[in-house]
Every structure is written in structure tokens, then in C-alpha cells.
Specification:
By secondary structure, this protein is mainly α. It is built from 47 helices and eight strands. The strands form two sheets. It has a five-stranded parallel beta sheet, with helices on both faces. The chain has a three-stranded antiparallel beta sheet with strand order 6-8-7. Helix 22 runs parallel beside helix 24 and helix 39 runs antiparallel to helix 40.
């Protein structure tokens, strides 16, 4: 069987084709037109459909391709189709001589299949002659149920098949384009900078991406050899795009070229200024009727230009590039020069002048560099600096420019001259703008610029690469920068410290901070550096005193505010941490540095989570996740997924928690993000506890809490100790020989840590841990102590957990009447903070204590359990989750005989005959 080549990002289109083929195999015909710009995969989709239909063996398939040289030969298209049919009714040569009426062609199609379903596929049908296209469209409109003929047409958008069902494949999204590139490069994956350059150049066009990748050598793909500029291989696709408007009048083509050039100084996707385009068009002699796009969205440009308010956009971004690529260099430069003269003095006019330049221009380069400053947005600064670098005369070889199409951009030349520093500066601005791909491309051009390039490269790795690699890269950058740029060296060391923190490397964190010289640190940074170092070295009191000074700082810099938030978390002053996080987020928004947004939202969401504000934490974490995806912050995304997993372990239950934790662990493991791994594992264990699976929770947390190679993050693992103690006690691990020792050791370490933090929940959690381990005669007093701490600290969720454990402890000791009050309070507390999974656990305990609890709505699992007693429902849930009878007995503190008895009654009440059926019936419960 033929297996068609995999098509990426085309699942929707393939489903439509599959439906057409399925109907055809059942005798029902139809028609479909695949219309899309060149390179979008029309031909691949058509070939896929032909191969899939032939594999079915339902009937014949005719597949022809339009020929450009025959588009004006009357009936040449129908002649090609008849020839492809082989011996069949109709004389192909007679069709060329005498023509073929549309009705006769329809009759021929119905006879071609010989009583079997027939698939007719015409690729590049826009290249057929007009008579053949008209006959094909006539026949296609009359194919329907019972016709046994389906026509599949791939054509350009102006081919004259209006009225027929159409499918328009769009550009590939980032994921699909990346997957296609992985297939194209095979085992030799491309260097990140090369990969980003290719993906941007292709703009989601699979044909262009394939052509560009095919023309590069393995050394170029690996980044060992600079990329040429312009990238070779795209000429055919760009020419095909330009051909789409080649038939338009000369004035219209001039307008399109002006609009294409007017995009050069605008941010990506912003379009061009309509007023500027009209003024330039008037100056170029374009009639007002041509340049006036007001009456119709596309005016007279055949849909190439679209107006949106006072902006004008190209419907297909590649068409803009194709027009600049095809235009003669002198004509293109003249248009840029015209636009520069119409713009007010400033960065926009300078960029247009740069595009009009025919060679190096030191004065213009200096002017562009000077213009790349606030209040210009980071992306605009990056564009200006890139052009400045391209115009900088290279003292070594002068190779800094290109006369090829499009707005002038330099090639990936490893410059050792003065342009290298400007490329490195452009890379930094691209990074801050949230465009890591462009930043890496600029770094590749910077080549031999020591210090700044290393710094930006390290920060990019910190955002989306292995944290240990980022740590070493930033230490190297700091050493290179220290002699001539101590301020930037200090920032590199702070980045190295952040990388070490993410990796759980306390010694590396200390090393990076202690390398910051006193003269390079302001007062707030000195307090932070000395305070964090003191805390990690065990001088808690002195460290806390210094860190408290960070909280009262009047800093407005995003970095200083993020450090203040971190100081608040270390101190346990969660309200202060949240306030600092909110201020940091506002400062990031004000700065326009999109690259900092995921980190700011991550810090704020984590502080809110620690403070028990789970709904706010979830909202900010979701915002951060969207920002991380937009700006390429893979590591921030892993941390944000971990925060969302922790929030879900309170609010949403096992499934959502597992999804976020799985995403966090998938991102954290290859990049060495120990903090994200610790938080995600803690979240999974907490969700296990909510679902009544303490043994699983204890197994997850054991390596995090105890010494060993899988020990959790030095700053967050203590947070998981209360869950570890609860899970171990409920799972019965503390009564089996040596199993109690690790738990006792963890509580002892937690008690020491409790003296070093002002987190208001920690004293209550410590008392709860001691209550869980206390002898029967002391436990009630310990629980009372914990609840007294909660009354002073507040916090619905942790207080409700303590009440739940206390009530459960009382119930298991047959003190059911006493158990009801703390269990009722626990249920109310969980409901108040939106902890649905925990509320369900409290409800089950309360029902087991003999109190009627209002059941959930009569749908889903709740409806199935309505007929069961509370104890039967608890047992049914446990069994549906896969627990054995012995495990259920241990969870519920009953005998296995009791479980057997209730389980038989559950099977009878629900009408199931096996544990598998029970699991299937109640599988939606978590």
C-alpha cells in the first residue's frame, strides 16, 4: 500500500478531503476547489487525495497538471485530461480541433468511470485555457448525489471557479512549521539561530521552507558556516507570488510596490500608514482613483491590499516580500528614497534612507544608532540598530551589505569590524522585544563581539535552554564585560544567579552573587546580595534584617522589584511579596520589555499561590503562560505550568493538575529546572491527597524531602513537608518499622526551618505535622494548637485541611459526634476558597460521620452514586481509581471484609459485574 508523505498542520484539510472520498466511494459525487497562494501545499494535498483514493481501490482516478505554456491554447486542458484517461470515449485530438461543449464534457465524465466511482484531480487549473476552465467548472457544479464523479481542483484564487465549494489552506502555525523543518533536516537538527531565520523567512509557507532548507549545506544548517543573504532557494515561490499581480495595470503595481516599501519601518504585522502610501503614490504619478482604497476593502489591487482603518496590509505577507524581491534594485531604492523624503525626521525616515542606500554609510549608521533609544519601542530600536550595523563600513573586508531584494538587511556575516557591536546591541533589543529568533540571528551576525554577545546569548539560554548552560554562559560574559562595562557585568552575574536558582544549585547561586563587586551594586542590590548570602550560609537573623530593607525600597526598576518580591518570599512576608510582584508587573508593562513579562507574572503568581490566593494565582499564571508562548520563554512556561498544577491541586482535581504538572516536568527535565520539577511533583502529590490516595502521594514526595540525588529544590522542598507527613501517616508508613524515621527527620528539619521564616502558615503546619505523629492521648491537643495558629494566621485552605484531618482522626476513633463540627467547618472552608476536590473529600468524611450532606447535581458521577450509602460511594470511588480491596481498607480505616461486603452491594446497586465496568462508569469522577 502506498503511504502518502505526512502533511504537517493540515489535519482539518485532510478531514475535508477524506469526507469527499468517503462520499465518492458510496456513489455520491461532488466538487472541491483548493485555492491558496503558491507554496501553501495545494499540490501536496491533491497528491495525498489521489494516493488515498487509489489505495481504496474503489475506482479510477485521473490526475493532470496545468502547463503554463498551454494556457492560451484552446481546449488544451480538456485535451490533457482526455489523454490521461487512456482508451475511453472521446477523441482527444478532435477536442483540440473542434472544441468540446461543457454539456458534452459532463457526459464524458460520467462515462469515464465505467460504472465505478471516478475521481478527477486537476492541479494548477488556473493554468488551463479559459474554455477548458469553463467546461470544468460547468461539470463540477452539476456533480452531486448519485453522480459517481468527484472533481478536485487546485488553483489560484483568480481561476474562475467561483460558486464551487472551496478549501483554502492557510499558513502553517509555528508548531507545524517546526515539525516540517525537523523532517526536512532529519537527524541533523538546525542551529537555533538558523532555524529561527528559516522559519521567519518562510512565514508559514511549506513550499518556501522546503526550498530554503534544501539549498543549505549541513555546515550552514548547523551554524558552523554563516548563512548567505538573501537565503537561496526561494526565487520560484516568490516569483509565483509576484506573478499573481503581474497582470495588473502599471499604476496599480507601482502602488503595491510603494505599500510594500512603506512596511519597512513599521513593526511586524502593523501594516503601513495609508496616508503615507497615498502621498507617495501621488508623488509617483499614480492616479488618485487607483490609490483610493476607501470604496472597497481591496480597491483595484485584486485583493492584494486590505485596508483596516488608517492602516493598509497585504493579504499575503509573502506577496510584499515578492514584490520587493522582483523590483529592480534602482527602482526599489527610488521608492524607499521617496518615502524617506515624505516622513518627518526620525527613526522611520532613517530606516527608509537605509533601505535606499546602495552601500556602506558611516554617517547614516551613526544616526540610526543614536535614534535607537527611548521612547522608541524595543522592536523599533532593534530594527534601527540592525540597519546601522548593515551600513557600518567593515574595516576588514567591507562585506556588510547586500543589493538583493527586500528592505536591506545584512547577511549572516561574522563581522570583526565595528558593526559587530551594533549587531549585539540589536540582539539585546530583539530579546527584550520578545523576539528570540531575531535576537539569535543578530548574534550570529555579531560573531566576534566579545562580552555583549555572550551576555545576550546567556540570557536567551536562560529563557529557553538548560539552566546550567545559561549559568556558565553568563559567568563567562561577566568576566569579559567586567574590565570595560561593570554595570553590564553585574547584570550578567544576576542572570547567572537566577539560572543557578532555577537549577537548584545553591552553591552556584552564592558564587554568582558574591562575584558582584561592591562598587557595581547600588544600595538595594547590596542589601539583597548580602541578605541572601547570609541566609544561605545560616546567618538567618542578619540575612533577614538586610532582606527587609529590600521591601521598603522605593525602586521602580523591574529587576529590583522582582528581587524585592523574592526577598519577601524568603522572609515569609507573603503580602509584601505580592505587593512587590504587582509593582514589578506594572514596571514591566511600562518598560515595554515583553521578554520580562512571563517572569514577572511567574513571580507574582507564585507569591499569590503561597499567600493562598489560588484564583488570582491561576489567572496571572495563565496570562504568563500566554506571554511565554508568545515570546519563546520555554523555561518560564515550565514554571508557570508548575504554578497552575499547584492551583489545580487545590481547585480542579487530578486531571487538570496532571496535565499542567506533565507539561511542567516535560519542560523542566531537559533544561535542569529543579524548582519547576519540585513544585510540579508537590502538586501531583497534593492532588493525590485530595483524591484519597495517600500512598501515591508519599511515594512522590519521599525523594524530594529526603537526602539523595532526587532531593527537591533547596528553597521550596520544605513547603512540601506537611503534605509528605500527612501522606505518610494516612498511608500507614509511620507504623511499619523504619518507615517512621524519615518522616520524623523531615518534621525535625521543618521545625528548624519554621524558626527561619515569618510565613504565618508555617507554625500551624508544624503543629499539624506533630498532631499527625502524636500518640493518641496528645493528638487532640496538638490539633487544637494548630487551629489556634490558624485563627491568628488566617487562610481558608490550610485551616480547612487541618480541620479535615482533625475531624477524620476523631471519626476513626468512633468519636463521630465530635468529628462533625471540624468536618463541617472544613467543608465550608474548602467551598469558600474554591477547593472543589478537597470539598468532595470533606463531604465524604462528613457523610461517613453520619451527617447528611447535600449531594452535587444529578449529573455524571454524582447521579450514579446517588443510590449508594456514603461508605459505599467512598469505596466505589477508590475501586474506580484502581485501588485493591486491601488499599481501600487502609485508606478508610476499615477491614477488608467490610470492603468486600460493600463492594458486592455497589455492584448490585449500579448494575455492574466487574471492577473494570465500575471504573468505566465512574471514570469521570476526578
Amino acid at each position: 500500500m502506498h503511504r502518502p508523505l505526512r502533511l504537517y498542520g493540515r489535519s482539518g484539510e485532510l478531514a475535508v478531503l477524506e469526507a469527499l472520498l468517503a462520499r465518492l466511494c458510496h456513489g455520491d459525487g461532488g466538487a472541491l476547489v483548493l485555492t491558496a497562494p503558491p507554496g501553501s501545499g495545494r499540490t501536496a494535498l491533491l497528491a495525498h487525495a489521489v494516493a488515498a483514493y487509489r489505495d481504496r481501490g474503489a475506482g479510477p482516478a485521473l490526475h493532470v497538471v496545468g502547463a503554463p505554456d498551454e494556457r492560451w491554447v484552446p481546449y488544451s486542458g480538456l485535451h490533457a485530461l482526455l489523454c490521461a484517461a487512456g482508451p475511453a470515449p472521446g477523441d482527444p485530438d478532435r477536442v483540440l480541433r473542434d472544441g468540446l461543449p461543457p454539456a458534452a464534457f459532463l457526459a464524458l465524465l460520467r462515462r469515464f468511470g465505467g460504472g465505478r466511482p471516478l475521481l478527477v484531480c486537476v492541479d494548477d487549473a488556473h493554468l488551463w485555457d479559459p474554455d477548458s476552465r469553463a467546461a470544468l467548472a460547468f461539470a463540477a457544479r452539476r456533480l452531486g448525489p448519485g453522480s459517481r464523479v468527484a472533481v478536485l481542483i487546485a488553483a489560484g484564487e483568480e481561476a474562475g471557479f467561483a460558486g464551487l465549494p472551496a478549501l483554502r489552506p492557510g499558513s502553517l502555525d509555528d508548531e507545524a512549521a517546526s515539525a516540517l523543518m525537523d523532517r526536512l533536516t532529519g537527524a541533523d537538527r538546525a542551529d537555533p539561530a538558523v532555524r529561527g531565520a528559516l522559519l521567519r523567512e518562510a512565514a508559514g509557507n511549506p513550499g518556501l521552507l522546503t526550498a530554503l532548507t534544501a539549498r543549505l549545506t549541513p555546515a550552514q544548517l548547523a551554524g558552523r558556516v554563516p548563512l548567505p543573504h538573501p537565503l537561496p532557494g526561494g526565487d520560484d515561490v516568490l516569483a509565483a507570488h509576484a506573478d499573481r499581480v503581474g497582470h495588473l495595470p502599471a499604476a496599480t503595481r507601482t502602488l503595491l510596490l510603494i505599500a510594500a516599501a512603506a512596511h519597512a519601518h513599521e513593526p511586524e504585522g502593523a501594516g503601513a500608514d495609508l496616508t503615507l502610501v497615498r502621498r507617495a503614490a501621488a508623488a509617483a504619478g499614480v492616479p488618485p482613483a487607483t490609490s483610493d482604497l476607501a470604496p472597497h476593502p481591496s480597491g483595484g489591487t485584486a485583493g492584494a491590499l486590505r485596508r483596516a482603518g488608517d492602516r493598509v496590509h497585504f493579504g499575503e505577507p509573502l506577496l510584499r516580500r515578492a514584490l520587493l524581491h522582483r523590483a529592480p534594485p534602482d527602482r526599489r531604492r527610488a521608492v524607499h528614497d521617496l518615502l524617506a523624503g515624505l516622513l518627518a525626521p526620525g527613526s522611520a525616515a532613517l530606516i527608509q534612507r537605509a533601505c535606499a542606500s546602495a552601500g556602506p554609510d558611516a554617517a547614516l549608521a551613526a544616526a540610526l544608532e543614536a535614534a535607537a533609544a527611548p521612547p522608541l519601542p524595543h522592536a523599533d530600536r532593534a530594527t534601527a540598530l540592525s540597519h546601522a550595523a548593515a551600513l557600518t563600513p567593515d574595516e576588514a573586508d567591507g562585506a556588510c551589505r547586500s543589493d538583493q531584494g527586500g528592505p536591506r538587511e545584512p547577511g549572516l556575516i561574522r563581522t570583526a569590524g565595528p558593526g559587530a557591536a551594533r549587531y549585539a546591541a540589536a540582539a539585546e533589543q530583539y530579546r527584550l522585544a520578545g523576539e528570540p529568533g531575531r535576537a539569535r540571528t543578530a548574534l550570529a551576525r555579531a560573531g566576534a563581539a566579545p562580552g555583549p554577545a555572550h551576555h545576550v546569548r546567556g540570557l536567551l539560554t536562560l529563557a529557553d535552554g538548560p539552566a546550567p548552560d545559561a549559568h556558565e554562559a553568563l559567568l563567562t560574559a561577566a568576566a569579559l564585560l567586567a574590565p570595560h562595562n561593570p554595570g553590564r557585568a553585574r547584570n550578567a552575574l544576576l542572570g547567572a544567579a537566577e539560572a543557578a536558582w532555577s537549577a537548584g544549585d545553591a552553591l552556584g547561586y552564592l558564587d554568582a552573587l558574591t562575584r558582584i563587586p561592591a562598587e557595581a551594586a547600588d544600595r538595594d542590590l547590596t542589601h539583597y546580595r548580602d541578605g541572601m548570602c547570609a541566609v544561605l550560609r545560616g546567618r538567618i537573623g542578619a540575612g533577614h534584617l538586610l532582606l527587609r530593607r529590600c521591601l521598603v525600597s522605593g525602586a521602580h526598576d523591574p529587576g529590583a522589584l522582582l528581587r524585592a518580591g523574592a526577598a519577601g518570599l524568603v522572609l515569609g512576608d507573603l503580602d509584601a511579596a505580592c505587593r512587590a510582584g504587582t509593582r514589578a508587573l506594572a514596571a514591566v508593562h511600562a518598560s515595554g520589555a515583553d521578554a520580562l513579562l512571563p517572569r514577572a507574572l511567574e513571580h507574582l503568581a507564585y507569591a499569590e499561590l503561597r499567600a493562598g490566593r489560588h484564583a488570582r494565582a491561576r489567572a496571572h499564571a495563565l496570562d504568563g503562560l500566554r506571554a511565554a508562548r508568545r515570546t519563546g520563554g520555554l523555561n518560564a512556561a515550565a514554571h508557570l505550568h508548575a504554578v497552575l498544577a499547584l492551583a489545580a491541586s487545590v481547585e480542579s482535581g487530578t486531571r487538570e493538575c496532571a496535565a499542567h504538572a506533565g507539561a511542567a516536568l516535560a519542560g523542566a527535565a531537559p533544561h535542569g529546572l529543579v524548582q519547576a520539577e519540585t513544585l510540579a511533583t508537590w502538586a501531583l502529590a497534593r492532588a493525590d491527597l485530595a483524591a484519597g490516595r495517600p500512598a501515591e502521594a508519599a511515594v512522590r514526595l519521599d525523594p524530594l524531602v529526603r537526602p539523595g540525588p532526587r532531593r527537591g529544590h533547596f528553597a521550596t522542598r520544605m513547603l512540601a513537608v506537611p503534605c509528605y507527613v500527612e501522606a505518610s501517616v494516612l498511608a500507614g508508613r509511620t507504623v511499619r518499622g523504619r518507615g517512621a524515621e524519615p518522616v520524623a527527620e523531615a518534621v525535625a528539619e521543618f521545625a528548624v526551618w519554621a524558626t527561619r521564616t515569618t510565613d504565618p502558615q508555617v507554625p500551624a503546619q508544624l503543629a499539624r505535622c506533630r498532631a499527625l505523629l502524636a500518640p493518641v492521648g496528645e493528638a487532640a491537643g496538638r490539633y487544637g494548637e494548630a487551629l489556634a495558629h490558624h485563627d491568628r494566621a488566617g487562610g481558608d485552605f490550610e485551616q480547612a485541611r487541618t480541620r479535615l484531618l482533625f475531624g477524620s482522626w476523631l471519626r476513626r476513633r468512633r468519636r463521630t459526634r465530635e468529628a462533625r463540627e471540624p468536618l463541617r467547618d472544613a467543608l465550608v472552608g474548602f467551598e469558600r476558597c474554591g477547593a472543589a476536590a478537597w470539598a468532595a473529600r470533606a463531604s465524604g468524611e462528613l457523610r461517613a460521620a453520619g451527617e447528611a450532606v447535600e449531594a452535587p447535581g444529578p449529573s455524571g458521577t454524582a447521579a450514579q452514586l446517588a443510590a449508594l450509602t456514603p461508605q459505599q460511594a467512598r469505596i466505589a470511588r477508590c475501586v474506580a481509581e484502581g485501588a485493591t480491596n486491601r488499599e481501600v481498607a487502609r485508606r478508610l480505616s476499615v477491614s477488608t471484609r467490610t470492603v468486600d461486603h460493600h463492594l458486592r452491594n455497589v455492584f448490585a446497586a449500579l448494575g455492574v459485574r466487574s471492577r473494570t465496568e465500575l471504573a468505566g462508569l465512574l471514570g469521570g469522577g476526578t
